[in-house]
UniProtKB/TrEMBL annotation:
Cross-referenced InterPro entries: CIMAP (IPR051291), SHIPPO-rpt (IPR010736)
Protein name, entry field: Outer dense fiber protein 3-like
Domain of life: Eukaryota
The species this protein was found in: Gekko japonicus (Schlegel's Japanese gecko)
Region annotation Disordered: where it falls in the sequence: 72-108
Matching Pfam families: SHIPPO-rpt
């Protein structure tokens, strides 16, 4: 075996990534999209349609079957078999188109279409002339002002406005904005202290007249049955016949 000559601690190795110094062009800086697949396809190349593959459908369970249902007697395994059946209905109505007759046309009005004739004009009123745009005159314009704060073509000096003295910072400025003592109403002392009784003076009331009550002779002592037991009282009436005709009154 031949010995490897000693070249020092450095050994040649492959770089982990592309080195820019090894390329004369921009190199791996740019990324060219691929022409295969559907995702990130290069836009300059034609792309075929992509289809997705799915798995097979699961098997149908044996328990999933229809329940009992009524089957017609005329139904066989080859289809419905029965005798011809007809339906009785009324005769259909036929719509007859009513076309115009010879008298509905006016051949005399077709002369100006079929034959050559002179032009015919009708007399009417004169049309109104075209409306002329009325432009404003010289007096419709105003010359811009040269005096005052609102000028267009000239420079103006600053304008000041004289106003009254401001209350801001004055001695009578109300910083709290609260009402004064005169804005409140003095409450009555009876609201927060013990109140004395009050009496009102009225007229003398009239005495009630002596009512006359019933005397001892007014009562019947023998007919008292409220506080004592009483024998039953029975009244005798009139016996009615079953053959008596009822009273019939004529109503007019």
């Amino acid at each position: 075996m031949s010995k490897v000559p000693w070249v020092g601690t450095w050994r040649p190795h492959r770089p982990r990534g592309p080195v820019m110094a090894q390329f004369t062009s921009p190199g791996p800086k740019y990324y060219v999209q691929g022409a295969t697949g559907f995702v990130s396809h290069i836009p300059t190349k034609r792309r075929a349609p992509a289809y997705s593959m799915h798995g097979t459908k699961p098997l149908i369970s044996k328990e999933c079957f229809p329940g009992p249902y009524p089957v017609q007697s005329s139904m066989t395994h080859r289809g419905k078999k029965s005798s011809p059946a007809y339906t009785m209905a009324g005769r259909p109505r036929v719509k007859v188109e009513t076309t115009p007759g010879p008298a509905s046309y006016s051949p005399e009005r077709s002369q100006k279409i079929v034959y050559k004739n002179a032009p015919k004009h009708s007399m009417s009123f004169r049309y109104e002339g075209a409306k002329v745009d009325s432009t404003p005159g010289p007096n419709a314009y105003t010359i811009p002002q040269v005096l005052g704060p609102y000028t267009v073509t000239t420079a103006t000096s600053p304008s000041y406005t004289l106003m009254g003295k401001s209350k801001l910072g004055c001695f009578h400025e109300d910083l709290h904005k609260t009402p004064g003592p005169a804005a409140y109403i003095k409450p009555d002392t009876e609201l927060y202290k013990k109140r004395a009784p009050k009496y009102s003076m009225g007229f003398r009331t009239k005495t009630s007249a002596n009512k006359l009550g019933p005397g001892p002779a007014y009562y019947e002592v023998g007919k008292v049955s409220l506080n004592k037991s009483c024998a039953p009282v029975i009244s005798f009436g009139i016996r009615h016949s079953d053959y008596t005709s009822p009273l019939i009154v004529d109503v007019y």
